[in-house]
Amino acid sequence: MAASLLLSLIVAILLVCSTNARLSMKVTEDVLKEICSPHQDPPFCLQALKSDPRTPFVDLVGLTNISIHLADVAINTTLAMIGPLVNETADPKLKMQYDLCYQLYESNVGEIELAKYGWKAGDYEKVVTMADGCLTDCGDCRDAISITASSPLSQKNKEVFHYCETMLLVSTRLSGD
Asked: By the 8 A CB rule, do 55 and 49 touch?
């Protein structure tokens, strides 16, 4: 009985240690490429993650934080751009589309805040869920403005979508899904 308890304890310690060791290893170039390979735009993903000077020195937990930060900046920049579009657009149909995108981006801000809290708490599944929510909101905004051929929001929304997708891929890798 004592031997099986001791064996179970040793196995549990080894599992925890190996998991922590995997999470605390610095992210290599190969790991970045693996993470970004399923991305709609793998070069965007790689460039975004490498744009942060901390990337060569972080583990998956740190890389997840970097991806949250990148998405956060892009979302808030785009939200700031949408406000004037709503107010300055004379076309009522376009104004309604921009207003919908504004509401979706307000939702994105909330999702990013929840992702930050999840990351701080070690709840990486929460980060995955919030990244997925950001992708959905960006997709809904894209659909709302798709009938507007030359909207200045189209490219910014696509960029935010890519940042949210990067966050999803990194956090999914961290959570082990």
From this structure: yes
User: What does each C-alpha distance from 173 to 53, 72, 94, 128 come to in angstroms?
Assistant: 21, 19, 39, 9
Distance, CA of 33 to CA of 39 (rounded, Å): 10
User: Does the model's pTM come out above 0.90?
Assistant: no
How far is 166 from 156, CA to CA, in rounded Å?
A: 15
Distance CA(109)–CA(75), nearest Å, equals 7
d(CA 113, CA 24) in angstroms, rounded, equals: 24
Q: What is the pLDDT of residues 92-116, one digit of tens each?
A: 988 999 999 999 999 999 999 999 9
Tokens of 121: 């708490």
CA dist 36 and 109 (Å) reads 24
How many helices (H) and strands (E) in the chain? Answer: 7, 0
Report how far residue 71's alpha carbon sits from residue 160's, in angstroms, rounded to the nearest whole number.
7
